[in-house]
Amino acid sequence: MPAKILKGEVIIVFADTIFDSYEKVTVDDADSVIWLKEVEDPSRFGVAVHDGDTITDFVEKPSEPISNLAIIGVYYFKQGEDLKKEIQYLLDNNVTGHGDEYQLTDALDRLLKDGKSFKKATVDEWLDCGTLPAWLDTTGEILEKEKHSFGEYENTTIHPPVYIGDGVEISGSEIGPNVSIEADSVIKDSKIENSIIQKNAQLTGCKLNRSTVGNFAEAHKATGEIHIGDHSILKQ
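Above: the chain's sequence. Below: its structure in C-alpha cell form.
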C-alpha cells in the first residue's frame, strides 16, 4: 500500500481474506477496530487478547494458547498517520518478529502501548486463502454457496458444484465436484476434482485432484496433485 494512502480514516483488508458478517460496528468510540474470528488453531495466526470489547494485547502466531480469536486481516484506523509512523519505526529499526518477518501486529502493539484504544469486532464467517489447502477448501465452499449453472460439453460429465468460465472448451472429460475453470481454458480427456484451473490453461489426458493450474499453463497426462504456475508446461 502506498504510504500516502495512510492518511485520515483508513480501512485495510488483506487480499487473501474473504469474510461475512451481520454485526453492525460503531467506529466512533475507538482509535481502531480489529475484526476477529474464533479458530481452532490460533498458532497459525496473529491473535488478539481482549477484555470485553476492548483489545488489550496482540500476539503473532502464539506458541501458548493465549487467545483463540484470530485477526482475520480487516482493520479500521481513525488516523492512518499513526499506523504509518509505527510501520516506519519497524522498518527503520529492523524490528522483525515470527519468521524473521515484519509483522503488522508489532505495529499494532506499539499503538496499543502508546495509549491508542482498540475495539474488537467479530465476523460470522471467515474463509482463509492464505495457503494452498485453504485456497482449495475455500473455493469449494464458495462454489457450494454460489451454485453456478453450466452448459453441456461433448462426452463430458459434470459433478456440481463447479464454475466454468466463458469460452471454456471441454471434451471427453469428468469435471467436479469443487472445480473452478476460468475463461478460455481447454480440457480434453481428463478427470478433474477439487481443483482450480485459471485462464487459458490447457489440460490433456490428466487425472487431477486438489490441484492448481496457472494462467496459460499446460499439463499433459499429469496425475494426482500438481501445482504449476503461469505459463508453465508439465508433461508426464
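The chain has two domains: 3-127, 132-235.
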